Here is the input.
Amino acid sequence: MKTLCDTTLTALITGAGSGIGAALAKSLGSAGMRVVVSDLNLQAAEQVAGELQELGCLAETLELDVTQQRQIDAVADYHTPIDILINNAGLQHVARLEAFPPEQWRLLIEVLLVGPAMLARAVLPSMKQNNFGRIINIGSIHALVASPFKSAYVAAKHGILGFSKALALETAEFDVTVNTLCPSYVKTPLVEHQIAQQAQEHGMSEDEVINKIMLEPMPKKSFIDMDELAGTIDYLISDAAKNVTGQSIVLDGGWTAR
Ligand SMILES: NC(=O)c1ccc[n+]([C@@H]2O[C@H](COP(=O)([O-])OP(=O)(O)OC[C@H]3O[C@@H](n4cnc5c(N)ncnc54)[C@H](O)[C@@H]3O)[C@@H](O)[C@H]2O)c1
Here is the structure.
Protein backbone atom coordinates (compact mmCIF):
# COMPACT_ATOMS: atom_id res chain seq x y z
CA MET A 1 0.00 0.00 0.00
CA LYS A 2 1.34 3.45 -0.89
CA THR A 3 1.53 6.24 1.61
CA LEU A 4 2.22 9.87 0.94
CA CYS A 5 5.46 10.05 2.91
CA ASP A 6 7.42 6.96 1.95
CA THR A 7 6.94 6.79 -1.79
CA THR A 8 7.58 9.04 -4.72
CA LEU A 9 4.16 9.53 -6.20
CA THR A 10 3.72 9.81 -9.94
CA ALA A 11 1.36 12.46 -11.24
CA LEU A 12 0.17 12.55 -14.84
CA ILE A 13 -1.12 15.94 -15.94
CA THR A 14 -2.83 16.36 -19.29
CA GLY A 15 -2.50 19.59 -21.25
CA ALA A 16 0.56 20.38 -19.12
CA GLY A 17 2.38 22.25 -21.86
CA SER A 18 0.60 25.52 -21.05
CA GLY A 19 -1.34 27.54 -18.50
CA ILE A 20 -2.79 25.76 -15.48
CA GLY A 21 -1.33 22.34 -16.36
CA ALA A 22 2.19 23.74 -16.66
CA ALA A 23 1.83 25.58 -13.34
CA LEU A 24 0.57 22.42 -11.60
CA ALA A 25 3.42 20.38 -13.09
CA LYS A 26 5.89 22.86 -11.61
CA SER A 27 4.17 22.85 -8.24
CA LEU A 28 3.95 19.05 -7.95
CA GLY A 29 7.48 18.60 -9.33
CA SER A 30 8.85 21.03 -6.75
CA ALA A 31 7.06 19.03 -4.05
CA GLY A 32 9.14 15.98 -5.02
CA MET A 33 6.69 14.07 -7.17
CA ARG A 34 7.52 12.41 -10.45
CA VAL A 35 5.54 14.43 -12.95
CA VAL A 36 4.50 13.12 -16.34
CA VAL A 37 4.09 16.29 -18.36
CA SER A 38 1.70 15.29 -21.14
CA ASP A 39 0.20 17.33 -23.92
CA LEU A 40 -1.06 17.12 -27.47
CA ASN A 41 1.72 19.62 -28.16
CA LEU A 42 4.88 17.59 -27.50
CA GLN A 43 7.20 20.56 -27.88
CA ALA A 44 5.33 22.54 -25.24
CA ALA A 45 5.39 19.56 -22.87
CA GLU A 46 9.13 19.12 -23.45
CA GLN A 47 9.72 22.76 -22.64
CA VAL A 48 7.87 22.47 -19.30
CA ALA A 49 9.54 19.14 -18.41
CA GLY A 50 12.93 20.63 -19.32
CA GLU A 51 12.38 23.57 -16.96
CA LEU A 52 11.47 21.13 -14.20
CA GLN A 53 14.51 18.94 -14.85
CA GLU A 54 16.75 22.01 -14.65
CA LEU A 55 15.36 22.60 -11.18
CA GLY A 56 16.32 19.03 -10.26
CA CYS A 57 12.73 17.73 -10.36
CA LEU A 58 11.66 14.33 -11.65
CA ALA A 59 9.85 15.15 -14.88
CA GLU A 60 9.03 13.11 -17.96
CA THR A 61 7.32 14.02 -21.19
CA LEU A 62 4.46 12.15 -22.82
CA GLU A 63 2.77 13.02 -26.09
CA LEU A 64 -0.88 12.45 -25.27
CA ASP A 65 -3.89 13.60 -27.24
CA VAL A 66 -6.83 12.90 -24.94
CA THR A 67 -9.11 12.28 -27.93
CA GLN A 68 -7.00 9.29 -29.03
CA GLN A 69 -8.14 6.07 -27.38
CA ARG A 70 -4.98 4.19 -28.36
CA GLN A 71 -2.77 6.76 -26.66
CA ILE A 72 -5.03 6.69 -23.62
CA ASP A 73 -4.94 2.89 -23.42
CA ALA A 74 -1.12 3.02 -23.50
CA VAL A 75 -1.18 5.01 -20.24
CA ALA A 76 -2.43 1.86 -18.47
CA ASP A 77 0.95 0.25 -19.28
CA TYR A 78 3.07 3.28 -18.44
CA HIS A 79 6.43 2.21 -16.98
CA THR A 80 5.43 3.51 -13.55
CA PRO A 81 1.87 3.38 -12.21
CA ILE A 82 0.01 6.68 -12.19
CA ASP A 83 -0.96 7.64 -8.62
CA ILE A 84 -2.41 11.04 -9.41
CA LEU A 85 -4.27 11.89 -12.58
CA ILE A 86 -4.97 15.53 -13.27
CA ASN A 87 -7.42 15.87 -16.15
CA ASN A 88 -6.60 19.38 -17.25
CA ALA A 89 -6.36 19.46 -21.07
CA GLY A 90 -8.85 21.85 -22.50
CA LEU A 91 -9.89 24.28 -25.14
CA GLN A 92 -12.70 26.74 -25.60
CA HIS A 93 -14.85 27.88 -28.50
CA VAL A 94 -17.14 30.86 -28.15
CA ALA A 95 -20.06 31.09 -30.59
CA ARG A 96 -23.83 31.03 -30.54
CA LEU A 97 -25.11 27.51 -31.17
CA GLU A 98 -26.30 28.17 -34.73
CA ALA A 99 -22.82 29.38 -35.66
CA PHE A 100 -20.99 26.65 -33.72
CA PRO A 101 -19.22 24.26 -36.14
CA PRO A 102 -20.61 20.78 -35.27
CA GLU A 103 -17.16 19.17 -35.36
CA GLN A 104 -15.89 21.80 -32.90
CA TRP A 105 -18.83 21.16 -30.53
CA ARG A 106 -18.04 17.44 -30.60
CA LEU A 107 -14.30 18.08 -30.09
CA LEU A 108 -14.93 20.06 -26.90
CA ILE A 109 -16.98 17.18 -25.47
CA GLU A 110 -14.27 14.69 -26.47
CA VAL A 111 -11.44 16.69 -24.87
CA LEU A 112 -13.26 17.93 -21.76
CA LEU A 113 -15.48 14.96 -20.89
CA VAL A 114 -14.78 11.74 -22.81
CA GLY A 115 -10.97 12.02 -22.56
CA PRO A 116 -10.94 12.46 -18.77
CA ALA A 117 -13.31 9.52 -18.34
CA MET A 118 -11.24 7.26 -20.59
CA LEU A 119 -8.02 8.25 -18.84
CA ALA A 120 -9.54 7.54 -15.45
CA ARG A 121 -10.57 4.16 -16.88
CA ALA A 122 -6.97 3.50 -17.92
CA VAL A 123 -5.35 4.36 -14.56
CA LEU A 124 -7.94 2.94 -12.17
CA PRO A 125 -6.81 -0.71 -12.18
CA SER A 126 -3.34 0.20 -10.85
CA MET A 127 -4.79 2.73 -8.40
CA LYS A 128 -7.05 0.02 -7.01
CA GLN A 129 -4.20 -2.47 -6.91
CA ASN A 130 -2.03 0.00 -4.93
CA ASN A 131 -5.02 1.12 -2.87
CA PHE A 132 -4.11 4.72 -3.60
CA GLY A 133 -5.21 7.17 -6.23
CA ARG A 134 -6.27 10.74 -6.72
CA ILE A 135 -8.21 11.74 -9.80
CA ILE A 136 -8.60 15.49 -10.03
CA ASN A 137 -10.48 17.10 -12.87
CA ILE A 138 -9.97 20.73 -13.70
CA GLY A 139 -13.61 21.68 -14.14
CA SER A 140 -14.66 25.30 -14.18
CA ILE A 141 -17.19 27.67 -12.76
CA HIS A 142 -18.97 26.63 -15.97
CA ALA A 143 -19.47 23.21 -14.39
CA LEU A 144 -21.98 24.97 -12.12
CA VAL A 145 -23.38 27.93 -14.04
CA ALA A 146 -23.73 28.81 -17.71
CA SER A 147 -22.65 31.69 -19.90
CA PRO A 148 -23.99 32.36 -23.39
CA PHE A 149 -22.04 31.26 -26.46
CA LYS A 150 -20.25 28.48 -24.55
CA SER A 151 -22.78 25.66 -24.90
CA ALA A 152 -20.25 22.89 -25.62
CA TYR A 153 -17.89 23.93 -22.83
CA VAL A 154 -20.72 24.33 -20.30
CA ALA A 155 -22.23 20.97 -21.28
CA ALA A 156 -18.89 19.17 -20.98
CA LYS A 157 -17.94 20.81 -17.68
CA HIS A 158 -21.37 20.09 -16.15
CA GLY A 159 -20.94 16.52 -17.38
CA ILE A 160 -17.61 16.05 -15.65
CA LEU A 161 -19.27 16.70 -12.28
CA GLY A 162 -21.81 13.93 -12.83
CA PHE A 163 -19.09 11.61 -14.06
CA SER A 164 -16.93 12.33 -11.00
CA LYS A 165 -19.77 11.64 -8.59
CA ALA A 166 -20.50 8.28 -10.23
CA LEU A 167 -16.82 7.32 -10.21
CA ALA A 168 -16.43 8.41 -6.58
CA LEU A 169 -19.12 5.88 -5.68
CA GLU A 170 -17.50 3.17 -7.79
CA THR A 171 -14.11 3.67 -6.07
CA ALA A 172 -15.28 4.27 -2.51
CA GLU A 173 -13.89 1.02 -1.09
CA PHE A 174 -10.32 2.12 -1.98
CA ASP A 175 -8.16 5.08 -0.93
CA VAL A 176 -9.03 6.59 -4.27
CA THR A 177 -10.78 9.92 -4.55
CA VAL A 178 -12.30 11.72 -7.51
CA ASN A 179 -12.86 15.45 -7.32
CA THR A 180 -13.29 18.46 -9.56
CA LEU A 181 -11.78 21.92 -9.13
CA CYS A 182 -14.10 24.64 -10.33
CA PRO A 183 -12.20 27.90 -10.79
CA SER A 184 -13.60 31.03 -12.31
CA TYR A 185 -11.23 32.89 -14.61
CA VAL A 186 -7.49 32.22 -14.45
CA LYS A 187 -5.22 34.34 -16.71
CA THR A 188 -3.86 31.75 -19.18
CA PRO A 189 -3.52 31.61 -22.98
CA LEU A 190 -6.98 30.01 -23.11
CA VAL A 191 -8.54 33.04 -21.43
CA GLU A 192 -6.47 35.60 -23.36
CA HIS A 193 -7.81 34.04 -26.56
CA GLN A 194 -11.35 34.11 -25.20
CA ILE A 195 -11.15 37.78 -24.32
CA ALA A 196 -10.52 38.54 -27.98
CA GLN A 197 -13.29 36.14 -29.16
CA GLN A 198 -15.83 37.54 -26.67
CA ALA A 199 -14.98 41.12 -27.61
CA GLN A 200 -15.92 40.28 -31.18
CA GLU A 201 -19.06 38.30 -30.23
CA HIS A 202 -20.42 40.99 -27.86
CA GLY A 203 -19.17 44.02 -29.84
CA MET A 204 -17.11 45.25 -26.84
CA SER A 205 -13.51 46.29 -26.18
CA GLU A 206 -11.23 43.72 -24.51
CA ASP A 207 -11.15 45.77 -21.28
CA GLU A 208 -14.94 45.77 -21.23
CA VAL A 209 -14.97 41.98 -21.64
CA ILE A 210 -12.60 41.62 -18.64
CA ASN A 211 -14.51 44.01 -16.38
CA LYS A 212 -18.13 43.62 -17.51
CA ILE A 213 -18.21 39.90 -18.37
CA MET A 214 -15.36 38.07 -16.70
CA LEU A 215 -14.86 39.85 -13.38
CA GLU A 216 -18.36 41.29 -13.04
CA PRO A 217 -20.02 38.13 -11.63
CA MET A 218 -17.21 37.71 -9.09
CA PRO A 219 -17.73 39.76 -5.93
CA LYS A 220 -13.97 39.55 -5.28
CA LYS A 221 -13.26 40.97 -8.77
CA SER A 222 -10.02 39.16 -9.30
CA PHE A 223 -8.64 36.39 -11.47
CA ILE A 224 -7.82 33.14 -9.64
CA ASP A 225 -4.05 32.64 -9.12
CA MET A 226 -2.10 29.49 -9.95
CA ASP A 227 -1.00 29.27 -6.29
CA GLU A 228 -4.63 28.93 -5.23
CA LEU A 229 -5.12 26.01 -7.61
CA ALA A 230 -1.81 24.39 -6.63
CA GLY A 231 -2.64 24.69 -2.92
CA THR A 232 -6.05 23.10 -3.45
CA ILE A 233 -4.47 20.22 -5.37
CA ASP A 234 -1.94 19.68 -2.55
CA TYR A 235 -4.84 19.42 -0.13
CA LEU A 236 -6.79 16.97 -2.30
CA ILE A 237 -3.73 14.75 -2.60
CA SER A 238 -3.06 14.77 1.13
CA ASP A 239 -4.31 12.26 3.71
CA ALA A 240 -6.41 15.06 5.20
CA ALA A 241 -8.64 14.84 2.11
CA LYS A 242 -8.93 11.05 1.91
CA ASN A 243 -12.67 11.28 2.58
CA VAL A 244 -13.25 14.18 0.22
CA THR A 245 -14.60 12.49 -2.90
CA GLY A 246 -17.21 13.19 -5.54
CA GLN A 247 -16.95 16.89 -4.69
CA SER A 248 -16.64 20.14 -6.56
CA ILE A 249 -14.10 22.49 -4.97
CA VAL A 250 -15.20 25.93 -6.06
CA LEU A 251 -12.70 28.81 -6.36
CA ASP A 252 -14.96 31.49 -7.75
CA GLY A 253 -14.47 34.71 -5.77
CA GLY A 254 -18.04 34.35 -4.53
CA TRP A 255 -19.65 34.03 -8.01
CA THR A 256 -22.08 31.26 -7.02
CA ALA A 257 -22.87 32.76 -3.60
CA ARG A 258 -25.30 35.21 -5.18
N1 LIG B 1 -8.06 29.68 -17.71
C1 LIG B 1 -9.20 29.72 -17.07
O1 LIG B 1 -9.73 30.77 -16.74
C2 LIG B 1 -9.89 28.45 -16.69
C3 LIG B 1 -10.95 28.53 -15.79
C4 LIG B 1 -11.61 27.38 -15.42
C5 LIG B 1 -11.20 26.16 -15.94
N2 LIG B 1 -10.16 26.12 -16.82
C6 LIG B 1 -9.79 24.81 -17.34
O2 LIG B 1 -8.42 24.58 -17.06
C7 LIG B 1 -7.88 23.69 -18.03
C8 LIG B 1 -6.59 24.27 -18.58
O3 LIG B 1 -6.88 25.49 -19.21
P1 LIG B 1 -5.79 26.63 -19.45
O4 LIG B 1 -6.48 27.91 -19.21
O5 LIG B 1 -4.54 26.32 -18.74
O6 LIG B 1 -5.61 26.49 -21.05
P2 LIG B 1 -4.34 26.55 -22.01
O7 LIG B 1 -4.90 26.82 -23.36
O8 LIG B 1 -3.29 27.46 -21.47
O9 LIG B 1 -3.79 25.06 -21.95
C9 LIG B 1 -4.53 23.98 -22.41
C10 LIG B 1 -3.58 22.87 -22.82
O10 LIG B 1 -4.39 21.75 -23.24
C11 LIG B 1 -3.77 21.19 -24.37
N3 LIG B 1 -4.73 20.42 -25.15
C12 LIG B 1 -5.75 20.88 -25.93
N4 LIG B 1 -6.37 19.87 -26.53
C13 LIG B 1 -5.74 18.73 -26.12
C14 LIG B 1 -5.92 17.35 -26.39
N5 LIG B 1 -6.84 16.92 -27.28
N6 LIG B 1 -5.12 16.47 -25.77
C15 LIG B 1 -4.16 16.89 -24.90
N7 LIG B 1 -3.92 18.18 -24.64
C16 LIG B 1 -4.71 19.08 -25.23
C17 LIG B 1 -3.20 22.36 -25.14
O11 LIG B 1 -2.18 21.94 -26.04
C18 LIG B 1 -2.69 23.24 -24.00
O12 LIG B 1 -1.34 22.95 -23.70
C19 LIG B 1 -8.98 23.47 -19.07
O13 LIG B 1 -9.64 22.27 -18.80
C20 LIG B 1 -9.90 24.65 -18.83
O14 LIG B 1 -11.21 24.38 -19.23
C21 LIG B 1 -9.50 27.23 -17.21
